[in-house]
Amino acid sequence: MRLWFISILFIKTICASPIPIVLWHGMGDTCCMSFSLGSFKIFLENQIPGVYVISLRIGNSTVEDFENGYFMNPNRQVDYVCKQLASDPKLSSGFNAIGFSQGCQFLRAVVQRCGDRLTIKNYISLGGQHQGVYGLPHCGALQHETCDYIRKLLNYAAYNSWVQSSLVQATYWHDPLNEDNYKQSSIFLAEINNEKSVNKTYIQNLNKLDNFVLVKFDNDTIVQPRETEWFGFYAPGQDKKMMTLQQSMLYKEDRLGLKKMDKAGKLKFLSTPGDHLHFSEEWFIKNIIKPYLTS
Ligand SMILES: *[C@@H]1O[C@H](CO)[C@@H](O)[C@H](O)[C@H]1NC(C)=O
Ligand SMILES: *[C@@H]1O[C@H](CO)[C@@H](O)[C@H](O)[C@H]1NC(C)=O
Ligand SMILES: *[C@@H]1O[C@H](CO)[C@@H](O)[C@H](O)[C@H]1NC(C)=O
């Protein structure tokens, strides 16, 4: 009788245990420092008692983690993370994933490339650069001529194959003045966006998500253009006029299956006032935790 009671209790605890969460930090940040993602992890653990949270560390130490955010080829980073997540028994029944800034496009690559080994339920992208960037931090908001000059200069270097394999940020540099060059030379972003060729596995794996939640920061001065956080970008051939995801060829040709996901109500476009990654705990609890991490 007693044993029976205990086993029922045991089963109940297992069933009720919250879905684990995986975090991938942004550039210039690390997995675990108390002033960065370390405190966010504690916040989640307080909000969702008993939840298992992993804040990904890319490398063998915090210093390596920081450096790898700039210098480790994202394709290798994604591979490293896939293996790490696939070998964690606590994640075998599935998990939710949250990306921060450049960690968003890397985590999306994990969803697309490792969907046969991982079960990812909801994927939350906080300020990700899904269509890349064309500009330097703080420069867009200044609307200064020098900014425009610098980004045109950077175009010469970013697509050099040596720079592509040595500087992470070059792999998602997206020059709207020369789309063909971007598609040919970007060793990461153009590939995961199915701009080079269409990989059907990517479409299938992305579509396995319950929800793909894209959060844009309305007053973002770091990411240029900020519309990239919703898969928007400059219309091809110029760098002033914006184009939404729905207006893009990526969507119209449905190269990545996003149109299908949008029609199925799986794409969620959220925005919040504030600069890059600045959100209040109240906002996060109401808009992310309640609908996607605990329901
Ligand atoms: C961790 O250390 C091992 C042994 O030194 C090294 O081979 C490996 O590349 C390191 N991992 C990363 C991701 O830097
Ligand atoms: C498509 O992506 C999957 C998962 O990363 C990979 O195994 C496969 O080789 C890719 N297919 C092509 C044609 O590149
Ligand atoms: C933030 O962005 C919103 C939406 O674009 C705008 O209405 C608001 O004025 C901006 N706030 C600040 C402080 O710039």
From TrEMBL:
Catalytic activity: S-hexadecanoyl-L-cysteinyl-[protein] + H2O = L-cysteinyl-[protein] + hexadecanoate + H(+)
Superkingdom of origin organism: Eukaryota
Coiled-coil residues: none
Gene Ontology biological process terms in this record: receptor-mediated endocytosis
This protein's UniProt keywords: Disulfide bond, Glycoprotein, Hydrolase, Signal
InterPro entries in the cross-refs: AB_hydrolase_fold, Palm_thioest
Signal sequence range: 1-16
GO MF annotations in UniProt: palmitoyl-(protein) hydrolase activity
Entry's family note: Belongs to the palmitoyl-protein thioesterase family.
Protein name, UniProt field: Palmitoyl-protein thioesterase 1
The species this protein was found in: Manduca sexta
The organism's taxonomic lineage, starting at the top: Eukaryota, Metazoa, Ecdysozoa, Arthropoda, Hexapoda
